[in-house]
Amino acid sequence: GASVLLLRACLVLLAFPIYLLSFLGMWEPFCRKVFFPFILDKISTVHDKKSKKHKVELFHNLADFRSPSGELRLLEIGTGSGSNFQFYPAGCKVTCTDINPHFQENLSKNMKKNQHLHYEQFLVAAGEDLHQVPSGSVDVVVCTLVLCSVQSVSSTLREVLRVLRPGGAFYFLEHVAAEHSSWKYFWQQVCYPTWKLIFAGCCLERELWKNLEEAKFSELKVQHIRLALPWTPIEPHIMGYGVK
């Protein structure tokens, strides 16, 4: 515990200008508009390369959840720059949501690259409040690297279940807390406060599989995998899907 606190203090000193900007109310708007879209694009490029085979495996059965009419209506929470579009089946009707509206440039590029999809609308919305989406109106909800930064995981999952039609599915791929006895978890504890400040509320220590188990899915498939991002405390991930 003492070692964690000492190393946390060292990180605070190293990141002092950011803490000062945050205190003055200047960091959050700059992070949301400039820094986070820029850095997330760079991180996503690395993460997408490492996770591609896992995403191919994860999304391979998306078409199984088409509605009786044959349509596949998909809602993505935290779309960001749209790196998942390439994995969605042709003809899929996609509604994009994100709490941050400043990803439009890279999002537009990925839309142009993936014209096999029909893009319905872009909603500025938090995962905990999808009131703009009618209940039972979508076949699939997708969420990748988003549950780490929502204000409330349980509220987000309640919204997921609300907007899904009966028999619809929620697909996820998220980084999670490491084993408590591991060095990776030690560094997650050290980095946690500064990491959360710099990366727009991203939490390193969430045990998201527990939240998923507590949600009221009729069927839940969770797989623990490892995707190491160089020079970061992120490695353990979970992926899978839950059926309403």
Under the CATH scheme, which architecture would be assigned?
A: 3-Layer(aba) Sandwich
- Overall pLDDT: 94
Overall 3D shape: globular
Q: What's the arrangement of strands in the largest beta sheet?
A: 3-2-1-4-5-7-6
Approximate strand percentage: 15-25%
Uncertain runs are: none
What is the number of independent domains? 1
Estimated helix fraction: 40-55%
Protein structure class: alpha/beta
Using the coordinates shown, work out and report the CATH topology. Rossmann fold
Quick rundown:
It comes from Furnarius figulus. The protein is an alpha/beta fold and 244 residues long.
Secondary structure blueprint with pairings:
Blueprint: H1 2-14, H2 16-23, H3 27-59, E1 73-77, E2 93-98, H4 104-113, E3 118-124, E4 138-144, H5 153-163, E5 164-175, H6 183-198, H7 208-214, E6 219-226, E7 236-243
Parallel strand pairs: 1-2, 1-4, 2-3, 4-5
Antiparallel strand pairs: 5-7, 6-7
Helix pairs in contact: 1-6
